[in-house]
Amino acid sequence: MPMASRVGDAVRQLLSGKQQRKTIAALANGEAVDLHRELTEDTELTPIQTDSELGLEILRHSTSHIMAQAVRDLFGTDVKVAIGPAIENGFYYDFYREEPFSPEDFEKIEERMAQISSDGLPFTRKTMDRQEAITHFAALGEKYKVELLEELEDEQVSLYQQGDFIDLCRGPHLPDTSWVKDFKLLRVAGAYWRGDEHKDVLQRIYGTVFFDEKSLKKYLNNLEELKKRDHRKLGRELQLFTSRDLIGPGLILWQPKGAQLRRLIEDYWKDEHYKHGYELLYTPHIARQDLWQTSGHLDFYSENMYAPMEIDEVKYQLKPMNCPFHIGIFKTDKRSYREFPIRWAELGTVYRYERAGALHGLMRVRGFTQDDAHIFCREDQLEEEIFHILNLNLHILATFGFSEYDIYLSTRPEKSVGSDDIWEKSTAALKQALEKKGLGYEIDPGEGVFYGPKIDIKIKDQLGRSWQCSTIQVDFNLPQRFDMTYTGTDNSEHRPIMIHRALMGSLERFVGILIEHYAGAFPLWFSPVQARILNITDDQLEYCEKIYNQLRKAGIRVEKDLRNEKLNYKIREAQMMKIPFMLIVGEKEKENGTLTVRLRDGKNLPPMKIVEFVEKVLSESAEGRGL
């Protein structure tokens, strides 16, 4: 979008009435300071009252400049400034400084930023010859700015100044620093200059800012909630998974409770796919390098693949994808149009290289299991198959508690394969399936993959965060590369259409999302442990063993805590482990052959017989699973 247009949209959120036309033009031309003075002679500038993306972007980028000024004011020329963009939910600025920034430094920086804000310093835009700008920043010792300038092709560059701080920047900015009031510095992290691990390590200070205190407080409260829900923290506390240096970074070890959770998800996934006409496949973890040459992965994806290994003087590689294996199975027989659609699904583990700095718990790993499926169909079946996939997709997501989505239809990119005709038909099929399902969507122009258009579904969790999970991709490339054919009604050979489809994306990431969505308190049907037996004294040990064995035989996932500890202590531990039911057993329960059932939220249910509890758990689990 042209800068003037972006500025115009943003400023419409900043000002109202007759101020808009003048302000849009002035900000677009970098004349914000003069305009601000003119406007404030007879009217007061209206504070931004919206969370408009463009309005917030201008606010946040302006705040990053204020933070950079505050850092330079406090720590002098020993600090070198790099870049400071607006980002989602905030901003950051990168600095080079020998000493690490401390929490005490953060307090000082915030105090100085508040003073700069109260001073109401105008943001003044200046233009300068590029060589003159290089000389200017070189004299200040700002080598990072010099490096950026040396790579620019523009002969004229723009700079923004507030007070005595000047920065290389395209803008736009707010009229003056007084507009920035409700901000907070959040954390500092290491960052390589230009993202290159061979360059300087900088300190990246992150912050956030809003146009009102209420929005800032809400965001900060959400951050605290995020810390409580962090899947890495809960994964340790609930004994679900770990990742050890002994094994290798980005490789997940599933502990017994995590393995149970994963099994429950996998079993449900397999059952639902079988009901919806899919057949299950299992394929190897490695393949001859030739396969990846034919598929195009060595040409387009080699930086994400691991180095080959040699077996019997033949090169093999770990698989980054499952698709070529499914094609290999397709080609074992001569296919007829009568067989279509062919729906094959696999929980296939793949391996992709991720930089160490990008690894993040279950969300970014180096080995993960895709809930993968490939559908081979005729052109006349494409729309119906996409509709079929959408039905299954939304059904499975709803069963796990996700009912809000953002949906995108990505169209043909500049570099692509396939005829215009097949692209138009495939895009239309995706569009018609979405509309038939009654789903709202946005067009994402040019963001399809080179081999076909796609649908992306981003689910929203309890905190309103979006997660990319589901994708439906139409592929013309691999059927051609592998010379896939079927015999049509005319008894001649035709090329099938291939649909790539993942609903959860990867099992590891989906489990991470589930942990944070439910804060570890999973619904009964896929809780790794559904109940824990707690005795009051050793006199109930034998009865507890009887309950335990009876529940296990009935298929209830149960643990027992028979330690010689106080009951309240054992209850508290069970609640911390987010176990849905605590079965408290004392002398009264032993004599009556009953259980006292306590929920993880602290409520007690009336005493019940063992068989009644079994019926309750099985019934509620089946209901949650959609049975």
Sketch the major β-sheet.
8 strands, mixed
Say what oligomer this is.
Answer: single chain
- How many domains? 3
Q: Which overall shape is indicated by the principal axes computed on the Cα atoms?
A: globular
Please report the total strand number as a whole number.
28
Q: For this structure, what is the CATH homologous superfamily of the largest domain? A: Bira Bifunctional Protein, Domain 2
Layout of strands and helices, then pairs:
Elements: H1 3-14, H2 19-28, H3 32-40, H4 53-75, E1 80-81, E2 86-87, E3 90-96, H5 103-119, E4 124-129, H6 130-139, H7 143-151, E5 156-162, E6 165-168, E7 182-192, E8 201-210, H8 213-229, H9 231-237, E9 241-242, E10 253-254, H10 256-275, E11 279-280, E12 286-288, H11 289-295, H12 297-300, E13 309-311, E14 314-318, H13 323-330, E15 342-351, E16 367-377, H14 382-399, E17 405-410, H15 420-436, E18 442-444, E19 454-460, E20 466-475, H16 477-481, E21 486-487, E22 493-494, E23 497-502, H17 507-518, E24 531-535, H18 541-553, E25 558-561, H19 567-576, E26 581-585, H20 587-592, E27 594-599, E28 608-609, H21 610-624
Parallel strand pairs: 11-15, 17-18, 24-25, 24-26
Antiparallel strand pairs: 1-3, 2-3, 3-8, 4-5, 5-6, 7-8, 9-10, 12-14, 13-14, 15-16, 16-23, 17-19, 19-20, 20-23, 21-22, 26-27, 27-28
